[in-house]
Amino acid sequence: MAKESGNNLALGVIGGGVMAEAIVSCLIAQKVYAADSILVSEPQEKRREFWQQQYGVGVTDENLAVMNAETVLLAIKPQILESVVTALDLATHQELSPLIVSILAGVTLESLESAFAGCPVIRVMPNTPATVGAAMSAIALGTDVSSQQIQIATDIFAAVGEVVTVPESLIDGVTGLSGSGPAYVALMVEALADGGVAVGLPRAIAQKLAIQTLLGTAKLLQESGMHPAVLKDRVSSPGGTTIAGVAALEKGGFRAAVMEAVKASYQRSQELGK
Ligand SMILES: NC(=O)C1=CN([C@@H]2O[C@H](COP(=O)(O)OP(=O)(O)OC[C@H]3O[C@@H](n4cnc5c(N)ncnc54)[C@H](O)[C@@H]3O)[C@@H](O)[C@H]2O)C=CC1
Ligand SMILES: O=C(O)[C@@H]1CCC=N1
Asked: Does the CB atom of residue 111 touch ligand 2 within 6 A?
């Protein structure tokens, strides 16, 4: 467990958007942090009010204020990192050295360590199923991180789902697969439902069937440890319906398209880091 107590500022958040909310809501629900030990910095007044009312956390529009926390979750868009760091002017606040936990796509540990000089840094790539406590997160450690700080970061992301620790060289690949993956899977669900509607199923039923098919298949693969190809073979009867569908997917380049999607996201993550 990380910190649960009252008065100290245990967790600061820079950027109170979608991912920050997904993560922090789980941390509070699971009592990893008490709401009154969290301070969220967010420029939009409506979002600040929402955070305060919905979660009871402290809010501010001053990023510097959250740097007093033991741990700072960095959850702004990568494109504005430079301006945020310039405004923080950390050179004149060298007494501040929180653990920086960045979820920014593409931004390397080297850039983060230079931007937050003197602060230990951990880079993480989570994904949006964090919203329902079912994230897949990969953690890469900076050069000057203590075992206690590794535990803090692990506790944070274990509260929102599964965690693996990887060398930083793999984080762009993680982004291509599990970071961006929920969008690919959502497209698959939408396409399955559209196919159902095309052959006459009512939309609501088609959507339910599509989601449960995905969930059930994922659960089966996870619990059995079965290779996906073996499962595909088990569903496909000789001369039956499934192999006709699989043949249509192959004709449409389905597997190549999914592989290309992972590679394109990986490459974009690398570009963002330059
Ligand atoms: N959305 C996703 O599925 C994932 C996103 N990420 C990363 O998480 C980060 C945040 O992404 P989202 O939550 O989707 O974006 P978002 O746009 O929902 O959240 C960013 C928040 O930062 C706030 N903000 C803008 N300027 C600011 C400033 N100067 N200081 C403090 N806060 C400021 C915005 O008002 C907004 O609420 C990105 O770096 C992204 O690469 C990582 C994994 C998955
Ligand atoms: O699209 C993006 O850049 C972010 C990072 C991974 C998922 N969403």
From this structure: no
- Checking if the pLDDT of 115 tops 50, the result is yes
Q: How far apart are alpha carbons 50 and 55 in whole angstroms? A: 8
245 lines ligand 1 (CB under 6 A): no
Euclidean distance between CA atoms 135 and 182, whole angstroms: 10
Does 192 map to a domain? Answer: yes
Which run of H or of E encompasses 112?
helix 109-115
In a domain, 185, yes or no: yes
pTM (2 d.p.): 0.93
Same-domain check for residues 34 and 165: yes
- Say if ligand 1 is within 6 A of residue 175 CB: no
Determine the atom of ligand 2 nearest the C-alpha atom of 125.
6
Q: Whole-angstrom Cα distance, residue 42 to residue 63? A: 8
Residue whose entry in the numeric block shows the structure tokens 């592989």: 259
169: exposed, middle or buried (Cβ count in 10 Å: 0-12, 13-18, 19+): exposed
Quote the ipTM score: 0.98
Q: Are strands 135-141 and 121-125 parallel, antiparallel or unpaired?
A: antiparallel
**Residue whose tokens read 């409506």:** 46
pLDDT of 219 reads 97
Averaged confidence pLDDT in the chain? 95
Q: Which domain holds residue 137?
A: 11-173
pLDDT of 4 higher than 60? no
94 band by pLDDT with thresholds 50, 70 and 90: confident
The finding on whether 269 has its CB within 6 A of some atom of ligand 2 is no
Q: Separation of 86 CA from ligand 1 center, angstroms?
A: 18
Residues 198 and 236 occupy one common structural domain: yes
